[in-house]
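ARCHIVE RECORD
Type: protein–small molecule complex
Small molecule: flavin-adenine dinucleotide
Source of inputs: curated submission
Record status: active
Notes field left blank by submitter.
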Amino acid sequence: MTFSGWGRYPRLESRLIEPISTFEIEESLGGSGQWGPSIIARGAGRSYGDSALAETLVSTRYLDNFSSLTTSEHGYTVLRCASGMSLEKVLETIIPKGLFLPVLPGAKAVTVGGAIAADVHGKNHHIDGSFCDHVESMQVLLATGEIINCNRDAYPELFHATCGGMGLTGIILDAAIKLVPMSSLDIAQRTLVADSLQDCMELMDEHHESKYSVAWIDCLASGAAQGRSVLYLGEHVDEKDAREKSKSGRRGLRAIKRSELKIPFDAPSFLLNKHTMMGFNSAYYALQKSRGAPKRIDYDAFFFPLERLRNWNRLYGSKGFLQYQLAVPQESAHACISAVLSCVSHAGKGSFLSVLKKFGKANNNLLSFPIEGYTLALDFKYEDSLFPLLDKLDAIVLEHGGRLYLAKDARMSKECFRRSYRQWEQFAELKQKLDPRGQFSSLQSRRLGLG
Ligand SMILES: Cc1cc2nc3c(=O)[nH]c(=O)nc-3n(C[C@H](O)[C@H](O)[C@H](O)COP(=O)(O)OP(=O)(O)OC[C@H]3O[C@@H](n4cnc5c(N)ncnc54)[C@H](O)[C@@H]3O)c2cc1C
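STRUCTURE (tokenized, with ligand):
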């Protein structure tokens, strides 16, 4: 079968194995080595590039059982579940109990294993850090067939290499995740409009205490309007308001099931050109400018706005698209992002989905993406002429001390990776010890020189 990531570039013919128990994986890995040399775990395939692509894919689709909800001695609740459980299913299980996940990426199909392997971030990184900062422990199946239960004290090297390690240390079987209380399904959203990149960053700094913060950027606007943007700020509606709402007969804390629209076929890629994108961006900016009033929206619409358009990745045409997501330290963020936006608008290759978020402090995981500062994500439809532009963007990012997100990457060079992920050598040494035959490898890991 042919597989790809969410961006549909690149594609690879692979063998798909769908174990129904951890025992089955353990036997095959540790025993005869019958799965061959190039294996990688695959969750929901929501990473954009080639991190979940290899000759043999071990799907966690059927490893999706819920194990327990327990209250720790410190009073918080911990969920234990298998790694193939989607965040959507986790939310459906915990929301009726008044609990919520502390960090959510923009796609709810993402699995717990995928969220740990990429150490995903949400709109609240500046306050709550990334997904793995809330993972207490996990079981990892190594290439030897051994299962290790690791946490920050027991097998800490394995823990910090597996969090953000893109599946290269082994297969995460299950995890224990700290949950947070949630009193309402609603988010109070405020929308602020910024006329330039500088304004947007100043607004983000000014509203640093806002729990959730994310900006849509018009990446094709140039000159004085460069970086004009719409900033969305969100807070959970407070408990008292929530009780009043449920008394008045509105829905209680049940997870929301939404209807979805589906893109039935690949859109012709000529529809996405500089002029249609500039038209869309200008219209969107003008519309949001006129609609600044605060409003309450349900969590599903706030956290997963794109999910209502199922298969929206088909909008980029049959050749797919690439997402370029960079993180850059606070002190060089404006210069870097401004140079990137100039390059993109000059090339006329941007898109309508360009997102800016603030990052808080980095953690101790060897390959986790966030650096304290900002992150910018830009979508580009696939075309051969895109690659030289992305190489230019890499040079800008490196010059400013930044790096690219492995979960979105499909083409970064080994040199770029090594210059920006400073702990790569430590990771490679540990990988060599854990997996000397290099059984766990993906198209991405081979490109980046990680075996
Ligand atoms: C619409 C959209 C919005 C997104 N928004 C965000 C966002 O806001 N923030 C963010 O950080 N990311 C975001 N992402 C990216 C996504 O969260 C990550 O790529 C995530 O890793 C995907 O999880 P998955 O289950 O689909 O894993 P896959 O894509 O299948 O795999 C991703 C990586 O995880 C590894 N992996 C998966 N399961 C396991 C396992 N059980 N054991 C070991 N390794 C495993 C794979 O080997 C691979 O290296 C978004 C993606 C989409 C499509």
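CURATOR ANNOTATION: The chain has two domains: 66-182, 186-237+265-413.
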